[in-house]
Amino acid sequence: MIRGKRFTFAIAAAGACMVLGVSCKDPAPTPPPEKKILQLLEPSGTSNVKVGDKVTIKWTISNVDVITRILVELEKDSGASDPTVLGGGTFAWPDTSITWTVAAGDTGKNCYISIKDYNDYSINDQSKTFNIVP
After folding, report:
1. For residue range 43-102, what is the model confidence (pLDDT) as tens digits?
2. Domain boundaries in the chain?
3. Cβ atoms of residues 98 and 79 within 8 Å
4. What is the layout of strands, in order, in the sheet containing 22-23?
5. How many CB atoms lie within 10 A of CB 42?
6. Which element (helix H / strand E) includes 98?
7. Quick check: helix, strand or coil at residue 69?
8. Which of 19, 47, 71, 130 is 20 to 30 A (C-alpha) from 82?
9. Count of alpha carbons within 13 Å of 118, Cβ hemisphere only?
10. Tens digit of pLDDT for each residue in 1-37?
11. What is the per-residue DSSP string for 3-68?
């Protein structure tokens, strides 16, 4: 026996927490993962896109009060080269898409579409990689 020390023992039963002499609540549940404010829906992943193709770029915004302007860019070579702006500006809800006609100068490997909040680039999303072929 140790004198001058106070010990508590926890007994867990049926999801409830009981501590001798003290009651407590179950631990707080883990919150669900945060939903993206800006999410790219299309393109969803294509291995090859051809020059002349018309590609729909579509996104969703879960909080229209936060995002008022969007920047849509084509990134090539896994983002190693300067991006090509495909569109941008103010989009009236629910108009959250543009159509991009793939130009001859857009050819490249490991390309992806990037969308960003025009005023806060930390709010962004991007497509899976694809190749642009002649």
Report:
1. 887 779 999 999 999 998 887 677 878 899 999 987 788 899 998 877 666 668 899 999
2. 38-133
3. no
4. 10-13, 16-19, 22-23
5. 14
6. strand 97-101
7. strand
8. 47
9. 12
10. 455 555 444 444 444 444 455 555 666 666 555 566 8
11. TT-----EEEETTEEEETTEE-PPPPPPPPPPPPSEEEEES---SEEETT-EEEEEEEES-TTT--
The pTM assigned to this predicted structure is 0.68
As given in the structure block, the two tokens for residue 77 are 């070579």
Residue type at 96 in one-letter notation: T
Amino acid identity of 12? A
Q: In the numeric block, which tokens belong to residue 10? A: 């926890």
- Per CATH, the architecture of 38-133 is what? Sandwich (2.60)
Residue type for position 86: L
